[in-house]
Each structure stands twice: as C-alpha cells, then as structure tokens.
Amino acid sequence: MSSPACHPITRERIQRALHFVAGIVASPGGEVYLPIFERLEAELAAIDTKTDALARARSMTVSSRS
To answer: Which of 7, 31, 32, 62 maximizes the CB count within 10 A of its CB?
Structure first.
C-alpha cells in the first residue's frame, strides 16, 4: 500500500472521486453512499474557499506595494 505522501490530495483527485461516487449514488440502492458524496462536495468547497482566500491575500499584498 502506498503512503499518503505519494498521492497528495488535490482538487482534481477529489473531483474524480466525486464523479465516481455520483455514479454509484445515482444507481439503484446507491443512496446509502450519499454521505460520502456530500463529504467529497464539502472537501471540494473547502479547497476552493482556501484557494480563493489565498488569491485575495496575495492580491492585497501586491496592491499594497504599488
């Protein structure tokens, strides 16, 4: 088994997992996997929020140097 350091968690990996799980959730009986789908959605939103905040912070430092 690979260590987690070999496979960093990226937005792309979460997006792929989300699409995969969506297919499972949409299949008959798949609603039992809905919590996993919701967790992946939340993780994706958290990455986007962090990325947006970093971009805003960097923008502020660039504009304050001008």
So the answer is: 31
